[in-house]
Amino acid sequence: MATAVIRKTLKSISPSVAIRTLSNRQFGAIATATAGEPESDGPLSSFTFSSDGVDQEVQNEKTKDDSIYLKAPKTPSFPTSASSSSSVTMPMSFMTGSIVGKRFYKQVTTREAEDGNGWSVMLDYRTLKTPSKNPLKCPTLALAKAIAAEWEYQQTDGIRPFTMPLMKLACTALERVPLTRPKIIQHLMKKFPQDLVFCRAPADNDLTRGVLERQVEKIDPLLKWVESEFGFKPVVHSSFFGGKQEDGLVTAIESLLKKTDDCELAAIDALTAAAHSLIISIGIFRGRLQIEEAIELIRLEEDLQVDRWGLVEGGHDVDIADLRVQIATAAVFLALSRRP
After folding, report:
1. DSSP labels for 35-92?
2. Which of 50, 175, 258, 297 has the fewest C-beta atoms lying within 10 Å of its C-beta?
């Protein structure tokens, strides 16, 4: 009975309506790929990212053939002339497993930017662009090659944005950080009193038995490094709401953040979001911590609970893998973006 009703409902739905409905949905940022021949008065056609859903909807109304089709149209409707080149609108979700659009390029290369300031990534004759439709200019050739490798890795059946974390960080550093630098630093400093390494487990609780001893063993050396590096001893506490740190330490940390360049601040912000610790981020930034050491500190308490109660498959193992990707990506981006 239920099956018959579902089949009857699906048959009554017009395929064109379903496709139009799916193509109009917005899931996060938007990527626009310009296909066709390069314009005569511009440098190159380009693959761009845009978060302006309104503009994309207006553009889609003007050019009906610009949508991604779930199935190829029966008759070719895309213009072929260079003057009427089409664009493909794709939902760009970096944090999901969705596949957006088919791979539209054959070769990925790098070249020096036209103004000589940085390096560009080329998809055939197209220049990779930022969300604001400016050429993506990497500060170093190493970073450009790494981003090019992410694009080269994409399969022919579709582009997987979640496999391009370096591309995401590069766009953040070039687009978001210059416009919101004071707010980023303000947010980081607001969370600083609640830093993970400042919080200690109570010694008289059976559920956290052994945690305090492990924190003293693993985290105290990092806190001693902070004291030697900035001249102020961090204050530890047992409250989730944090505790007040010395004004001198707060000022020193804030001064360090203000002296960073855009790529460095983007990496520190990403590291802090993943680690829940600005101190661990600065430890990686200053070379005090390696990736595995940072992950061990971040997961210190949870790993003790796993040792005691066991690992939940599909839960703990996925969290560990996700953390490794986030920390490693930001650390690698930080290293690759630094000029020799």
Report:
1. -SSPPSSSS--EEEEE--HHHHHHHHHH-GGGBPPSS--SS--S--SGGG--EEEEEE
2. 258
